[in-house]
Write a structure and sequence with these properties.
With 345 residues, the chain is α/β, with parallel strands linked by helices. It has 15 helices and 10 strands.
Length: 345
């Protein structure tokens, strides 16, 4: 009987992943500038050749061909017989005139987050935000809520990035057991709207600061839900949460520090009847903290943007829920990096 040979060959090493990640900002800024220039909105009208498209966008001749062909190579544009066009995905999600537009969050990334992330090292060393507040400016939320036009765009952007998860919650959660739901930190109201649209027996409440009311009511009316979904103004820091069979918090909990997270879950438990449910969803980090890179980077974004916010794992959230009085807690994946944590009172 021969002795098995043990390979001593070392795994192949390559600098490719290091270089791609280290220079990933090249691709990111190319896409963000394309959104800023409204390339995808322009091409939603139809394919255009280099000269026509560059002229409409005001691109310099030195830059235009390389820029547009980079977008082709990155998979954001197609080019056929010398004419550029959107891909199916960019046509759906990056045309400003479509309701599916999610470029609003990327517009904010371009104008705000991109420069602030340049100070990540400082944030890592100090633990302090690196946004407007770092230069003595107002709190980002206070500034947004003080400007109705900017607030509307921001809330629309939040709907865009959350829409897929909202639709999944509306279809996946066992809503037949419940009659009422409240969306805490409702923003434009897409979460409670999708739940109500998919479950005609439900009535719902959107809970947020008073400035959000007109934007929420316009969105609910547009979806034909005004008879079943209403707005309740308030602050989840100073006011009781609405009473309902189910309380939802979408992309809310990660904005706040640990004490505030626990407080919000306690308030949710107090507002629910026995047998009621809380649904919390964010880019939930996997318990091993090694797979959901988006969730981990979102936590770094909270470091840059907030005094104490951070993203968290499913087991973290389950522990806080049980401490608040919930039982039968579980984690369910939604779409992309997002998962929901469910707790039953």
């Amino acid at each position: 009987m021969s002795t098995p040979q043990v390979s001593t060959r070392q795994p192949a090493v390559s600098p490719e992943h290091i270089l791609q990640t280290g220079l990933a900002f090249w691709a990111s800024k190319t896409l963000l500038s394309a959104i800023e220039l409204e390339i995808f909105t322009e091409l939603a009208k139809g394919p255009e050749d280099l000269a026509t498209l560059a002229g409409r966008l005001g691109l310099h001749p030195r830059a235009s061909r390389d820029f547009l062909d980079t977008l082709v190579a990155l998979g954001f544009l197609a080019r056929q017989e010398g004419k550029y066009s959107n891909t199916p995905s960019t046509d759906v999600f990056l045309d400003k005139h479509k309701p599916s537009y999610l470029g609003g969050i990327l517009e904010m990334a371009n104008s705000r987050l991109y420069p602030f992330w340049g100070h990540l090292t400082a944030a890592l060393k100090t633990g302090n935000p690196q946004n407007e507040a770092a230069q003595g400016g107002p709190d980002v939320f206070a500034e947004l809520y003080a400007d109705p036009a900017r607030l509307k765009e921001f809330l629309r952007a939040m709907s865009g990035i959350s829409h897929g998860a909202n639709m999944t919650i509306a279809a996946k959660f066992p809503w037949a057991k419940y009659k009422t739901a409240a969306d805490v930190g409702t923003a434009q109201g897409d979460l409670i709207s999708q739940v109500a649209l998919a479950n005609p027996h439900l009535s719902g409440i959107g809970f947020d600061l008073p400035q959000v009311g007109p934007i929420f009511e316009e969105y609910v009316e547009k979806n034909g839900l005004a008879s079943r979904v209403r707005f309740q103004p308030g602050s989840f820091f100073t006011d009781p949460l609405p009473s309902a069979d189910v309380i939802m918090m979408g992309h809310i909990l990660h904005d706040w520090n640990l004490e505030q997270k626990r407080m919000l879950l306690r308030k949710a438990c107090e507002a629910l009847p026995d047998g009621g449910a809380v649904i919390v969803y964010d880019a939930i980090i996997d318990d091993d903290r090694s797979k959901n890179a988006f969730g981990l980077m979102m936590s770094l974004n909270m470091l840059i943007e907030t005094p104490g916010g951070f993203d968290y794992s499913g087991s973290d959230c389950i522990g806080w829920m049980k401490d608040a009085g919930f039982r039968d807690c579980r984690v369910e994946h939604l779409v992309g990096p997002d998962s929901m944590v469910i707790g039953i009172k």
